Amino acid sequence: MTFKLAASPHSHQRRTTQQVMRWVYMALIPGLLALIYFFGWGVIWQLGLAIITAWVAEAACMSLRGRPIGFAWRDHTALVTAILLAISIPGLAPWWLIVIGTAFAVIVVKHVYGGVGQNIFNPAMAGYVLLLISFPVQMTSWPLPQQISQFELSFLDSASVIFTGFTPAGYNLEQLRMGADGLTMATPLDSLRTALNHQLTVGEALQQPIFGELAGLGWQWVNLAFLLGGLVLLKQRIISWHIPGGMLLGLMIPATLAWLFAPDQTVSPLMHLLSGATMLGAFFIATDPVTAATSNRGRFYFGALIGFIVFAIRTWGGYPDAVAFAVLLANMTVPVIDKYTQPVAYGHGGRS
Amino acid sequence: MSYKEISWNGLWENNPALVQLLGLCPLLAVTATVTNALGLGLATLLVLVGSNITVSLVREWVPKEIRIPVFVMVIATFVTVIQLLMNAYVYGLYQSLGIFIPLIVTNCAIIGRAEAFASKNPWRRAAFDGLMMGVGFTLVLIVLGGIREVIGNGTLFDGADLLLGDWAAALRIEIFSVDYPLLLAILPPGAFIAMGFIIAGKNWIDHYREQREAKPVKEVTRARVTSQ
């Protein structure tokens, strides 16, 4: 019997990056199905565009850097970046939006910093923020949930809207977003925010048809589907509970306090949890192992910080949702969090 | 230091914006268009030449202990002169640059040159150093402004008539026109990203030149020491 000498780490999961990434995008499938069911086929076209752009951009960067292209394609990280960005943007957004966003995410945010494992910022969210501050109109034109929309778009109709701006019948995106009363409607968080700014109470604001029983028609189920996928990742030990748990607590605690004090002027905690990008952010975006903190305690603080920033921006900030900004801001604090949460090595003091 | 060295230093080797990374606040804030960049660059250039000459002339009489306040006063005087001149002759540009004209006083590139060069050299050299540093700074401003204007607006020399008079309106070049410009390039984050790429480009050129200079590898010829 021979004893092999091997360098540390001595205990590890036998999973390659590709396998981890495959679990991540498999776990996104329930959320993706919910998105298609409520918001139409557009997201499939966005996914296709994003994946093609990511592959081309990755190949271009790798060949410029003189590295093997196939190696980068096989680790599937660009694929996950592309998928996360594609499901974060409105399904019927024009085609160039996702192309610019994905190319920026892969080229500038990932490869300029040195490629996979070296980036400081979450590529998908940096791409999202680029798009949000450059093209605010397109980035906030979410289609209506199909259940209250007057139009039913087929698979090819949505392609026509994405590539030309019009359906074959000649309707543009603005007309498609009109409800039965002829008014365009924003996302639940956006509408609620506008209503609160117009001195309405939450109870009055919730009369609009866009709010379903819990937290917005369609959105609640999309969020629950992402929660389901996230729980699968937890079960598979792809992610630990610290980041999602921290983020949901960091969002829940201030939201509950504010709601208890002024239930008529603040968004309810349930709505915070099940609307916007909360679940997608908590389980799939904030948990990016490269840009998150390292130790478990650090990860919990990192998640809690994201949750609190999301609450702060949703409540007092200029944007209706804030997961992308919160993740980028928390990414910047990671070196500080890592410095103060470094675990004490065995035998080196600490609390006795 | 010869005049040739001074110019090489100012324009490339020790460029205030690319290497010393001084004066980044106006550099990043006003370079949304080439016109603004050129206007601020020229203003900085004039202040730099004026302050370098004055500091060099009075350097024998200024006690070491209070030199910094004296330099700041000299620079502030020139900035006030430039500001009043711009207010009088290029009012449109004066308005679009706004607070960044008085803020030239705080531009570290200027006090840096006063301290590092003008206070130790005769006035002719100091003036030439100020000119070259100013030109180097202005060139970087123009490149950065050009990149941001093309990406963010699809034009070049938009509003040049504000700086150069009415004839310059013909300079405006429309490269492409889009319904929705990439706002990020015009906003401050775009300035940081573009600046990063420019510095990377400079480093790449330096690296390339070094490699080319180091090319002639010594041919090792072995002398045969054993007989066959």
From TrEMBL, chain B:
Domain of life from the UniProt record: Bacteria
Keywords annotated in UniProt: Cell inner membrane, Cell membrane, Electron transport, Membrane, Translocase, Transmembrane, Transmembrane helix, Transport
EC number: 7.-.-.-
Chain's role: Part of a membrane-bound complex that couples electron transfer with translocation of ions across the membrane.
EC class name: translocase
Location of this chain's protein in the cell: Cell inner membrane; Endomembrane system
Location, primary (coarse class): membrane
Family statement drawn from the similarity comment of this UniProt entry: Belongs to the NqrDE/RnfAE family.
Subunit structure: The complex is composed of six subunits: RnfA, RnfB, RnfC, RnfD, RnfE and RnfG.
Membrane topology, from the record: Multi-pass membrane protein
Entry's transmembrane regions: 20-49, 70-91, 97-114, 126-147, 182-205
PANTHER family: ELECTRON TRANSPORT COMPLEX PROTEIN RNFE, ION-TRANSLOCATING OXIDOREDUCTASE COMPLEX SUBUNIT E
BP-aspect Gene Ontology terms: electron transport chain
Keyword Ribosomal protein included in the entry's annotation: no
Annotated protein name in UniProt: Ion-translocating oxidoreductase complex subunit E
One GO CC annotation: plasma membrane
InterPro entries: NqrDE/RnfAE, RnfE
Keyword Nucleotide-binding found: no
